[in-house]
Predict the structure of YbaB/EbfC DNA-binding family protein.
Amino acid sequence: MSFDSLESIQAFVQQRVTQALAEDAASRGADVPQSGTGESVEGEITVDVDGKGFVRQVRYDDSIAELDADELREATLQAIQAAHADLRPGGRPAKDPTAALHDNSVDQAYRDYFDQRMAGGASGPFGAGGAFGGPRPGGTPGPGQPGGTQTSI
C-alpha cells in the first residue's frame, strides 16, 4: 500500500478500527453458545465449560476408582475436548481474538509513508530540503547528513 498523505493513513486507520469493531460485534452474536458440556468416551467424567471454553465444573462417576492415573488424565482430557466441541457446533474452531494483535498494517502504512518522505519523495519537513529530509535548497547538507549540522537536546 502506498499513502500520499497523513490524511489517507488516518482514513485507513479508521477503516481498520471500524472493521475490527464489526468483527468483534459479530463474534459476540446471539448465536454464540454460552456454555458447552462433554463426556469422556466411557461416560465416567462430565465437564462443563463457559462460553470462552474455560472449565466451570467437572463431575466424576464412581467408576473412576477403577482408573489408574494415566486413564484418569486421558478420560478428563476427552471430556474437556468434547465440551469444547459442544461449544463450537460443527467442530469449527473459534476465531482467535488475539489474531488482530498481529496485524501490523497500520504500522507499516506509517513506516512506508515516512520512508518515502525521508527518501526525498515529498515536500515538507520529511521531504527533500525539509528539516528532517535531504539536502537543503542550494545543496547545503541537512541535519544528519555528512557535513550537516547536528542539534542535540
About this structure: The longest strand covers residues 45-50. The longest helix spans residues 6-27.
